Structures are given as C-alpha cells and as structure tokens.
C-alpha cells in the first residue's frame, strides 16, 4: 500500500486526483493562490507545482535547437529559456502555495527538475515527489528523490520498457518501494487515439507498481476510461479559464471540469466492483417484474391451456416462461380468473 500524507493509493479506494498548476499562475502569486482555492473547491486530493528555474533546466541560448520552430508545437516561436522563464514557479512562492493548500486540507508537492530542487523541497517537507516525463531517464535525480524515502510518482511519457525498468530499479536500489507510474503521452495537447491506456494494466503487472495516468487530453473521458483499466492516480493540468491564456492553458481543465473529473472518476471506480452473475442484493426486488406465465382469460376446471388463455407477461410471480411449451395442452384443475399466476398446483 502507498500512502501520501493521510491519503491511501490503491484499487481499494477512489482514484487519487492531482491538480497540476504548472505555469498557469501566469507569474502572479495571487492567481497561484486562487488556483489552490479552486482546486480545493473541485475536491481534488492534491495540488502539484513544478520546481525549477530557467537556468536549472536549460541554457540561456535562443537559437538552433534551443529555439522552438516546429509548426505543430504549442509553444512555437519561443526559446526554451524564455518559455521556462515564463512558466516557472518562483521558489519564494512555494511555501505560500503549500501553506494555502494545507489550510484547505490539500496535499501539496512538486516535480523537481534537478537535485538542488530536491534539497529545497526537503526544507518544505513535501509528502511526495513527481518525476516528469522528460526527466524519467535522469537516473541520478530519481535516486536522489528515492533516498528521501517518500513516495515517488514517475510519468512515463516517451520511455521504453527498458528505460522504465531502469527508473524503477534506480528507485528500488535506494530502498524505496513507494512507486507510482503514470501512463503519459508527451504531446500538448494529447489525443485519445494516441493515449494507449491499454498499457495501464500491462504496466502494473510488468513493474509491480501502482499505475495511473498523467492526462494531457481535453476533457475527462480518457481519465474516466483509465480508471476502469486500473488507474489509481489521475493527474490533470488545470487553470482558472482557458480564455485567460497561459503556457499550459490550451490543454488544462477549467474549475467546473476539474470538479467533473473528481466526480466521474469516482463513479467509474465505484462501478468496477467484481465479477458477478445473477441478481445483486439490490436487484432482488426487481425479480417480480420479470415476465412469467399468467392466466389471460377466466377458465373453468378442466379447460385446456392454449396460446389464447395463458400468456407470458409481467410481473414474474407465475411459472417461468421456459415452461410455456410444456404447459400448452394441459388442463386446469380448478376455476381461475384472469390475472392468476400459473403454477404447477393449478395443473392436472
């Protein structure tokens, strides 16, 4: 069993929902704190931010491969350095954001992007760590996080099975078994067709970990489907309003959608249940509304049962309809009125 703070993670409990703020604070602490409030109102379990600076994640270079020129990239026209400068969460804000989360009873933690970020987050006593997809091949970072002894959530975007094996082994080599893998597609936004959530149960068996979904698709449908396949953690980016813009706003949920995510993933989890045939306890009263055999016209003792005077109708208090052909041609033992359920005791 994995436990983050006071929350347990596993199939025995509802999905653990993480609201990812990322850079949607738009460099406003006031907006960041508002996002914490909105996440709490939506009913999520945890709030997550990201801990880096432009200089800890890339170089101050604005040409060549450091410049985003791909026409299909959401951030085309920016250098990596300027993008991360716009998106990063100032480290001096972290304590205020985490304290606001605590006031709401929300768990709050972060994705560190280098070892200095881990050292900083340890001073804030975060309850867990998240490794982003682009860092899942950073074995020294994974080992550093694993050494804290705290749960480690690893997004699996782009990683091969071999690379994931290396990441999981790195965490376990430090004595940390509290590992959650998140199936992830590292496109922004992602589409349902390239989400491949069928990987979730396979990943759980292959690596022996809890598995969830870091979902970059629009809407909540993929997350709901993932829960039915065994996802125990769902992570989604969120914002106040996509219309207000922001580095991740295009694929982020708005507050009412985040609330829907919480509600619908819990419903999906509740619906899984167990393999079951036959009426459940709550269905038993409905059995009387099945079809069964009833007298359709008044009959006298000795009358012969025909297709005209016996029918299969609702409710279900008469003989089963499977005996219909068997009772045709039989005689009635006593006078009966229309609406009498047919029984073996009425037959000669």
Automatic annotation (TrEMBL):
PROSITE patterns: AFP_LIKE (PS50844). It holds the Pfam family NeuB. InterPro entries: AFP_Neu5c_C_sf, Aldolase_TIM, PseI-like, PseI/NeuA/B-like_N, Pseudaminic_synth_PseI, SAF, SAF_AFP_Neu5Ac, SAF_PseI/NeuA/NeuB. Residues 292-348 form the AFP-like domain. GO terms for molecular function: N-acylneuraminate-9-phosphate synthase activity. One of its GO terms (biological process) is carbohydrate biosynthetic process. PANTHER family: N-ACETYLNEURAMINATE SYNTHASE, PSEUDAMINIC ACID SYNTHASE. This is N-acetylneuraminate synthase. It comes from Ureibacillus sinduriensis BLB-1 = JCM 15800.
